[in-house]
Amino acid sequence: MSGASTRDQLSRLLALAPYLQTRGEVPLSEVAADFGVTSAQMLKDLRVLYLCGLPGFGPGELIDINVEALESDPEGLVRIDNADYLARPLRLGSSEATALIVALRALLDSSTVASREVVERTLAKLETATEEGATPLVDVRVPEPPPALKQARDSLARAITSDRQARLGYLVPTRDEVTERVVDPIALLQNDGKTYLDAWCHLADDRRLFRVDRITAVEVLDSPRAVPDLEPRDLAEGLFEASPDDLVVRLRLSPQMRWFAEYYPVLTTAETPEGGLEVTLAVSDERWLLRLALRFGGGLRVLEPADLDERVRAVARDALRLQQATA
Predict the structure, then answer these.
(1) Please, are residues 119 and 104 in contact by the beta-carbon 8 Å criterion?
(2) PafC HTH domain spans which residues (predicted)?
(3) For the chain, what is the mean pLDDT?
C-alpha cells in the first residue's frame, strides 16, 4: 500500500468508529459511499478496525465488528460493539493542547472562507479550556505574515471559493525574472512554514506549485476556472513531483557534498569508493543545474547526459576567461 493510501485509510479509521457508534446499524454499501470508497475497501478497513482496542488487546478489550457476517453477506448491516470508551470526550495534556493551538493558529492564516469559521471555533474552545485549566507557561503566538503575503493569500482564497481564475506576477528564482500568468487556483497548502498555491497554469499548460511569498501581484479575474475539478495536491511526501518531461541526470558528489542528497529530491543514490555519492536527479530546467554545477565546482560533476557535462565545462571556461580578462 502506498504512503498516500495508508494515510487515507488511517483518516477513515479514525472517523469510522465514532461514525458507526452514532449511526448504529448501517448497510456496508452506505458506509462505503459515505467515506467515498468501494464496499470491498470498506470491508478491508473494518478488518483493520476489528484488530484495534485498548492496551492489552484481550478479547474484552478489542473493538467488536461483525466482519465474518459481512464477508459472507456484503449487503449486510455493519454492527460495532465494545467501543464505548471512544464516546468519552478526549482529554488533552497541556503540551498536546499547546501543539494544537500552534497548529490551528498557523492554519488560520491559510484557511479558506469556508473552513475559517470551523478553525476559529475550535481554536476558541481550546484556548478557553487551557485558560480555565491552568495558567499557560508560555504565550503561544504565530508571527504575523507580511501584509503583501497576507493580501496575496486572501485574494487567492477568494478566487478559490468563487471558482474564478487569477492573474499572477510570479518571481522565477532560477531565471531571476517576474513572469505574468493566468492560473486556475485549486488550493492553498502549507509545507515547512511556507504557503503554496496549487494551481493549473495556462502559461505552462500544466499543473504547478507556486510559493505565495514569490507572488508579486494577484488579480482575481471574472472568468471562471477552466479546470475546476482537480483534487488538491498531497504534500505529505514533499514538494517535488517529477514530470515525464523532466531530464534525468546522473551526478557524482564529493564526500563534502554528501549533504546534497538530503537537501535535494534525488531519485537514486550509490556510494563511491572515495566516500562520495552518485545520484540521479530529475531536472525541469537545465539552467538551474548549470548554475548549481558552477556554484559547487569540483564537488559536483555531471556524468550523464554527456552533452550536459560538456555544456557545464564550456560555461565554466567562459566564466574563467571573463574573470581573467577583468582581473
Answers:
(1) yes
(2) 8-127
(3) 77
Q: Let me know if residue 236 belongs to a domain.
A: no
CA–CA separation, 286 vs 265, rounded Å? 16
Asked whether residue 182 is assigned to any structural domain, the reply reads yes
Q: Which domain holds residue 107?
A: 94-133
Q: Which residues contact 104 (CB under 8 A, 6 or more apart)?
A: 119, 122, 123, 126
CA distance 203 to 215: 15
Mean pLDDT over 225-247 rounds to: 66
pTM score, whole prediction:
0.45
Question: Among 191, 182, 204, 279, which Cα is nearest to 240's?
Answer: 191
155-186 b/e with 16+ CB inside 10 Å = b? bbbbbbeeebbbbbebeeeeeeeeeebbbbbb
In a 3-state reduction of DSSP, which class is residue 204? coil
| CA 253/CA 255 separation, integer angstroms | 7
Q: Is 190 helix (H, G, I), strand (E, B) or coil?
A: strand
Region 217-225: mean pLDDT is 92
262 and 196 share a domain? no
> Using N-to-C axis directions, what is the helix angle for 113-133 and 94-110, rounded to 10°?
160
- The total number of structural domains in the chain stands at 4
Tell me which residue of 117, 203, 191 sits closest to 165, measured CA to CA. Answer: 203
Between CA 239 and CA 191, with CA 110 as vertex, the angle to 5 degrees is 20
CA distances from 274 to 45, 48, 254 (A): 49, 48, 8
Residue 235 in domain: no
CA–CA gap between residue 186 and residue 198 (Å, rounded): 5
Per DSSP, which regions of 192-275 are E strands? 194-201, 206-211, 215-224, 247-253, 268-271
Torsion angle defined by CA atoms of residues 117, 192, 35 and 225, in that order, rounded to the nearest 10 degrees: 70
Q: 39-49 vs 3-23: helix axis angle to the nearest 10?
A: 80
Give whole-number Cα distances, 325 to 177, 246, 285, 317, 318, in Å: 28, 37, 30, 12, 11
